[in-house]
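>> received
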Amino acid sequence: MKRKAIPPIVRKALISELEKLNELAARSEAYWGFDESHMEAFKRLCALREAHFKKGCVFVIEKDGEIAGFYCLAAKEADFELEHFYVDPRHIGKGLGKTLWLHMRTFCIHRKIREVTIVCSDFVKGFYLKMGAASLGQVESTVDRGKMIPRLTYRIDPGTR
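>> returned
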């Protein structure tokens, strides 16, 4: 008898999962072929930290009982930034990113967050544009000094899907 597939679930991340989430983020970043220098700087400068959990805005997506991705939404002065959004490479292209994105959108609607800023690599820019984000231009990478990377915005209209 064929086992019935369990749909993915999104839930709040636990602080005890911090190391596991940082490892997932590194695997996801490395998927795009970045060199060792970039990856060392990424792990140092872009790590998820305990402070992210204190704001209650870190969520994971589980597939078949395993963490398959996560996101972190953080308040930045007058707006919000999607600081982390990673899917395990084994699950890229299988719809989990979209599920995670829709959860983030619903979370924003409930919190009355109307705009989210995203800074990302060129490799994932297309995903965010497909999800409805718009380009704001470029900013200097914190990981690769001197390199310009996309800066996007996602405006949330609670009346649309």
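>> The helical segments are 18-30, 36-45, 50-54, 96-110, 122-130.
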